[in-house]
Amino acid sequence: xxxxxxxxxxxxxxxxxxxxxxxxxxxxxxxxxxxxxxxxxxxxxxxxxxxxxxxxxxxxxxxxxxxxxxxxxxxxxxxxxxxxxxxxxxxxxxxxxxxxxxxxxxxxxxxxxxxxxxxxxxxxxxxxxxxxxxxxxxxxxxxxxxxxxxxxxxxxxxxxxxxxxxxxxxxxxxxxxxxxxxxxxxxxxxxxxxxxxxxxxxxxxxxxxxxxxxxxxxxxxxxx
Length: 224
Ligand code: PRP
Ligand code: ZN
Ligand code: MG
Hints:
CATH architecture of the largest domain: 3-Layer(aba) Sandwich
CATH class of the largest domain: Alpha Beta
Bound molecules: 1-O-pyrophosphono-5-O-phosphono-alpha-D-ribofuranose, zinc ion, magnesium ion
Shape: elongated
Distance between the termini: 36 Å
Number of strands: 11
CATH superfamily of the largest domain: Periplasmic binding protein-like II
Helix content: 25-40%
């Protein structure tokens, strides 16, 4: 890993985790110079900077040592671990569960479809952005089904006829209702995590991580 004297934290540029993640760092006493919609935010007090990126890119950025830590959902972390080619990559660890961004990765079927159990998915096509997590669940259930990988708008796949079921994130359930789908299985429970390498860098960044963890633990304790 290239030595660096500033800590770099990756977080979602725009999405559900963006605001709570930035709030958390603000409550930890970190302040940043650039506006929130910029890609790079320079830490003013402590040498801790932010990189604002697509959430799906966060695990890879940490694994490649480009960023030291990240705030990302367990769904994204686990999907990365199941699907990325890991040559030269650092092993990742869940440093803290952050208690926000709670959601689940679930299977859903059209309202009118009969569903008594996982066996009813055999031979069907399931649309998802999480082929790794869905594939693992199907293997565990001993079910063979087709997996149709889509980058987004997974919920319209049954209406388009490209799949009979979907496997996607559910938070309020509003998206499923709006698309006449019903949730039938939970594949993964997720929340925002502080993610880092299993082994901390041996330079100043290691101390900065410890400072950050201590402050995060303080903020989480106050909230509980
Ligand atoms: C997720 C998911 C659904 C929606 C579910 O998408 O793909 O579209 O949230 O939430 P609900 O149960 O509260 O309706 P997200 O907003 O994370 O964006 P993405 O699909 O672009 O990843
Ligand atoms: Zn995403
Ligand atoms: Mg969506």
